[in-house]
TrEMBL record:
Organism: Mycoplana ramosa
UniProt pathway: Purine metabolism; IMP biosynthesis via de novo pathway; 5-amino-1-(5-phospho-D-ribosyl)imidazole-4-carboxylate from 5-amino-1-(5-phospho-D-ribosyl)imidazole (N5-CAIR route): step 1/2
Superkingdom of source: Bacteria
Residues that bind ATP: 100, 140, 145-151, 176-179, 184, 207, 261-262
Pfam family, one: RS_preATP-grasp-like
Protein name: N5-carboxyaminoimidazole ribonucleotide synthase
Catalytic activities: 5-amino-1-(5-phospho-beta-D-ribosyl)imidazole + hydrogencarbonate + ATP = 5-carboxyamino-1-(5-phospho-D-ribosyl)imidazole + ADP + phosphate + 2 H(+)
UniProt keyword annotations, A-Z: ATP-binding, Ligase, Nucleotide-binding, Purine biosynthesis
NCBIfam families named among the record's database cross-references: PRK06019.1-1 (NF004675), PRK06019.1-2 (NF004676), PRK06019.1-5 (NF004679), purK (TIGR01161)
Entry annotated with the keyword ATP-binding: yes
The EC number(s) this enzyme carries: 6.3.4.18
Subunit structure of this chain's protein: Homodimer.
Amino acid sequence: VSTIGIIGGGQLGRMLAMAAARLSLRTIILEPQADCPAAQVANAQIVAAYDDLAALDELAQRSDVVTYEFENVPVAAAELLVRSVPVLPPPKALEVSQDRLAEKRFINECGIATAPFAAVDSQADLEAALDSFGGIGVLKTRRLGYDGKGQRMFRSPAEDRQGAFEALGSVPLILEGLIAFEREISIIAARAQDGTIVCYDPAENVHRNGILHTSTVPAAIHEATADQARRAARAILDRLDYVGVVGVEFFVLGDGQLVANEMAPRVHNSGHWTEAACVVSQFEQHIRAVAGLPLGDGRRHSDCVMQNLIGDDIETVPAWLKTPDALVHLYGKRESRPGRKMGHVTALR
Ligand code: ATP
Ligand code: MG
Ligand code: MG
């Protein structure tokens, strides 16, 4: 492998391209936005939509392997690519992770607990599902939600449900039981082409306004809980005959048991800390896996906290630059907007 095609040109694509460059691998980005974070560091870009047939064909021609930085790559596009170039992680991973209903069914098939759930395709479905959940739950769009967008919580049976289906856009929804969790963790794991699996230590995640705010490692969990997270990641990776990095989010219950929330078939925001606290980051690990190289070890040499720089947080950069043992990573986005991820910083401690 000498050239890796990457679908998606955001910060994750950018960091993958940076990791590839260090291993003398070339990258070509498929991304409709010309001025995207990844274009500044990749070797080449095809400026086109993710489902543009001619562009996909060109990407296949110019790449030895194609990967992606986001899970909403049209499955049809991935299946078309697969006919002429290896696509890793396998398209099946896209299929299960871009629809919350398919995702929960798949995770359960792997022997991993999730919140109880019900498909909601109408206001009547919603009423029935809410009734069966005691009037409490989280309503989510099945597709395209991120950073807590496309969600509505029902915290008490007294809450008004009127118009809730329409309010989320009248698209297929899922109602999940509301999990009373003690904390949230995620695990980043990688599987190589020979089936070898490497797990990073679970991170403890705190969200603000629905967006990941900090990831702290080590998480305040018992070894048995960490082990449960590793076993869950392994089960998911093996069942998909996966190659690349996956991120799996969990709720930790009071008794230390885990309930899986969702998975992402890609490098994950809650794994950014690995670039500062591990010798081989999640980005390099993903590149190694899809390029058919041996994985690096996942050992952590330092405790750390990764903090996202969102919107105006960008103004804290001068102070971070003067902070010892803090790795500042900016994404090259010109304008900051509320809720926009501008960069992150990992402070070792
Ligand atoms: P991401 O940006 O991580 O992809 P997302 O938009 O896909 O986020 P989720 O991860 O499903 O959304 O939910 C966002 C947050 O909302 C969770 O991290 C958790 O704090 C809360 N949440 C989601 N589902 C539930 C649930 N069933 N019970 C309790 N809290 C939940
Ligand atoms: Mg998500
Ligand atoms: Mg999430």
